[in-house]
Amino acid sequence: MKKSILTLASALFVAFYSNAQKVDFQEYDLDNGMHVILHKDTAAPVVVTSVMYHVGAKDEQPGRTGMAHFFEHLLFEGTKNIGKGEWFKLVSSNGGKNNANTTDDRTYYYEIFPSNKLELGLWMESERLLHPIIGQDGVDTQNEVVKEEKRLRVDNQPYSRFLEFVKENIFKKHPYKGTTIGKMADLDAATLEEFLAFNKKFYVPNNATLVVAGDIDIASAKIMIEDYFGPIPRGAEIEKSFPQEEPITETMNAKGYDPNIQIPAIMAAYRTPSMKTKDSRVLDMISSYLSTGKSSVLYKKLVDTKKMAIQAGAINASQEDYGTYILYGLPQGETKLDDLIKEIDEEIGIMQTELISERSYQKLQNQFENNYVNSNSSVEGVANSLARYHVLYGDTNLINSEIDIYRSITREEIQAVAKKYLNPNQRLILEYLPEKK
């Protein structure tokens, strides 16, 4: 009887949020190739204006790493009609806030304004695209800003370099082997002409997706968008061709050293398929099963019960072209790194030979339903998701339908994907160690 009640409750949960969380949107292309997505939400008198450019760290030239992230900073320097240092003042003085971020695959800029400032947001983003001021003075200024960011977030932050060490060893050809922030020597060596060429190539309307979300009138928003973005010339078509990686067929071993840590860590990393695949979503579920919350498999076994680890878990770092799946542990006391890996491998082996329990499976489904609800709970989150699904997945409606993919995943698929990708001969073992004195 109890099981029947739980099943009914879960079914009602799914049915309720399937209806309540549907995101309505319109999308179309301007003549210059810019993709436009509009979402009306009158719950609050705010509007998000955002642009996602399909350019990230993987698009950089060898020897010029960090360029995409650098532009995230550089394009706040000013434009033909917005003076140097005035961008943030203009936003805050009109009751707004703004930010930007860069990954290996894309760069995203956005403003959040009171809804009566929609035109201001559109004008500012059109200025960034059409009239950026890229001069040596701005390059020099932002070079120091990026260096300070690297010092704070990477060089002096404990455990901040684990992904860098994993990527540089697990990718041999693909540019994912680098870091988003790049190497400072590369930025120092870059010429002004190279910065101008990067902007000309990637910051064009046909490589951009504009999302306007919030308390808007659709018809008037379309008119303003055409007025501000329509006249911007189309850029040259961008061809992307990245080298394919050979399969990993035997265990690779590597070490990475970090002067900011005292406790070592062990990582088992696997190269996995694109985030656009169903297998990548299954790996998301496996990560949650292994490491989400104190009742998760690895935490309960290694941290709570056996007290072998301070931390243990799994990360599915999925990206547009490949994914990197990482199992990790930080030892407690005298526990050896090899012993942590043996315990983790034991749990993976159980997943590969036995179906997870119905109870664990239902818990996963509930977690992903909750994640879905939370991701669409703010207009800011909706705007980001709309842009991301169009740019990186090529399907904007995944904002509504991706949850159905997770719902369709079975216990048998979880077992099959664990068997397919999480094997000792398909991985990198990285010892992440305190720097030698």
TrEMBL record:
InterPro entries: Metalloenz_LuxS/M16 (IPR011249), Pept_M16_N (IPR011765), Peptidase_M16 (IPR050626), Peptidase_M16_C (IPR007863). The keyword Signal applies. One of its GO terms (biological process) is proteolysis. Gene3D superfamilies: Metalloenzyme, LuxS/M16 peptidase-like (3.30.830.10). Transmembrane segments: none annotated. It comes from the Bacteria. GO terms for molecular function: metal ion binding; metallopeptidase activity. Keywords: Hydrolase, Metalloprotease, Protease, Signal, Zinc. It holds the Pfam family Peptidase_M16. SUPFAM superfamilies: LuxS/MPP-like metallohydrolase. The keyword Glycosyltransferase does not apply. Residues 1-20 form the signal peptide. Residues 190-367 form the Peptidase M16 C-terminal domain. Residues 36-181 form the Peptidase M16 N-terminal domain. Belongs to the peptidase M16 family. This is Probable peptidase.
